[in-house]
């Protein structure tokens, strides 16, 4: 499908804009049953009995599943296997699922859910991570032995000395809130037991391979007995990992035990109640500077509310630790980070993964430091920011890529006219009803998983006999357009018109585990694998072309659907070579595997080459605050990000705008309103995500410095754009009102 | 009872009048473009056009479209399968990411442009206030609608 605007090409646009795209709830099978989860009123309790007798006899109910029906293991997880798929002996948070009703209609199932009776002995709920950490506090997961899930630290230089050499010391406390991903499509799964014994799973989930592991664990099945089939997904933002896999697992169990296809489609309230959230952070931050504004030392303590289960808390808090001083050179750093169990809603991966919280802290601190030193907020950043060959706080020298910190900063300053606007900011004084302010924030971000995980991806390019091409990678499209990016890369690498390339519907039965689509790693890792697979295809094709063109293999280039001898310009059609290859049984099929370059990490002192490359970003916003009502109106926002290489400009810009919107929600609007362990904002009437009328006009500036460590040159864009609006807003609000807010979301109070 | 759905007149048995419209469209007519994402009229993913006006139908009943002209996303494209100019604009301006809000967005925008073929960007924002999008930040959606509006004056 060639778009009228080739820079906006997406393989799935036609299906989505015509309503033809089938998301999980759009899929139907004959004789399909419906499943719904059952929750309890408890926050933290010892289960005495789950009485499903009445529910089992309700109209249309086929079966009611509980932990007792699990043939495999009921507890799973990516790091610690503490995540209950069905609540068994205990309830650890208000979103724990005690049973699954399987019925003929969804209405039957929902009606029967209210008939399940849960009898439990209530235990005190531990809702504050600082309480949970205290000596003698009740241990939530007894076999783990402590409420501290994990710790990370940085011990660099000598902070005592650094503080003693500082002219100015600033010490502040910050806190951030739980955040709901609020993907427009709630969790959903359709599981179909195939005649050959394989359970097919269609679902809204971001990591098909992890989902398969969860399903197989619960069912006690072999990996080859379960096939996860890629399905168009209505957004993920990091939020469709554990919970989404668990929804699929429960549904798969229902399908296996009833022998029928089963669908689970989540209501919004279940999704918000049960699914994991972004970690709220409490940060105590101490910064010492010289009177010239050079940072001499930083000491910080970061406490992340890990909620009821571990999920990926150790990895999220690791990134926060590595990036705890922002894009600045600091020689003396003492950081302690804790992920802590509580009986709050589970917390896990969300776009940014530990960076939105820390950037709010650091970029607020930098503006505070500007105030205290009398320096311009841009100048103080210039004096401390990383440059080419700078050494990061984990001792990594930034020398294997172009450090674009200054470039993105300059781009924003120029486009936004920040300096002028800063001078016009009200600082609490205005003749009119409106106070005006601008704010800026910048960051750097380590690419992909870093030392958190095993980082590789694979891609298969399968050229058909007629020259048309099927591409498949281990990266899963959440809606961001990764499938399209892979096709565009293959098109560029093979010199083939995009119309001849199709992304094959993905399945876990075909390609090796490509890891999860997180960490903004899709284009870097999947794209890297596509580039390597393309190289192999080119290598297989070259001998045939060389023979035909009477030239050496070295001079052959691939473009315009041809293979051309660059020296003579003689060409042969791509399709002709393919035909010959098939006749000779030399198949143009290749798998590329891209392994991320090695990274290092020392747990003891938090030093190492944490990420194989870095990306740089800067954002600014202007706003007004009404003096009487405190209402904030966002006027205009600008962002510049070094994306490495942009594969599809329009899609890249889409990531800018979407990330900024989410950052705006984080900074100003979004709150779950948890009270006593129960979430009060369970739907969009009370959980406020930005609407079209909340959003300012935005400008996206793509800075391209192809990354030498990424075969496609791409760096990653999904998360960098999400981590800066909140501090930019906090800084703008200070410049407008003269008041600094240390808590997110910012709620303007009149003195 | 009768209703005209995507220019086709259909007859619906009277005993179904009090059933949910969104379920009828999705499960019986296989018009799955309209989605139920919040079930309380707060997100707009279920929006369709009833007599050229946008309507969130997550709580509507079948009787609500008796004798009415209903347009769902499946009815926007031309009979030969080519896209309506508004749909094409969404494609060209990158207004589609995950696509879940897209059917509701396109239809709501279409209703706006039929009424006001020269909206300002702020008027577009206001018209879309009831349609939530988590992916795009609305920027490219507004760009697409603004670009398409040029051709609506010809209606």
What does this structure look like?
The complex is a heterodimer of chains A (751) and B (155). Chain A has 751 residues and is of the alpha+beta class. Among the domains of chain A are: 24-124 and 204-259, Aldehyde Oxidoreductase, domain 3 (Alpha-Beta Complex), CATH 3.90.1170.50; 401-446 and 613-751, Aldehyde oxidase/xanthine dehydrogenase, molybdopterin binding domain (Aldehyde Oxidoreductase, domain 4), CATH 3.30.365.10; 456-595, Aldehyde Oxidoreductase, domain 4. Chain A contains 18 helices and 30 strands. A 7-stranded mixed beta sheet of chain A has the order 3-7-1-14-11-12-13. A 5-stranded mixed beta sheet of chain A has the order 9-17-16-15-10. In chain A, strand 4 (75-76) and strand 5 (83-84) form a beta hairpin. In chain A, helix 10 packs across helix 11 (377-384) and helix 17 packs across helix 18. Chain A is globular and about 75 Å long. Chain A starts with 12 loop residues before the first helix and ends in a 14-residue tail after the last helix. In chain A, 61% of the residues are buried. In chain B, helix 2 packs antiparallel against helix 5 (139-152) and helix 3 (102-115) runs parallel beside helix 5. The mean pLDDT of chain B is 96. Chain B has helices spanning 21-28, 85-92, 102-115, 121-127, 139-152; strands at residues 2-5, 8-11, 47-50, 53-56, 69-71. Chain B has a 5-stranded mixed beta sheet with strand order 2-1-5-3-4, with helices on one face. Helices cover 33% and strands 12% of the residues of chain B. At the A-B interface, helix 1 and helix 17 of A face helix 2, helix 3, helix 4 and helix 5 of B.
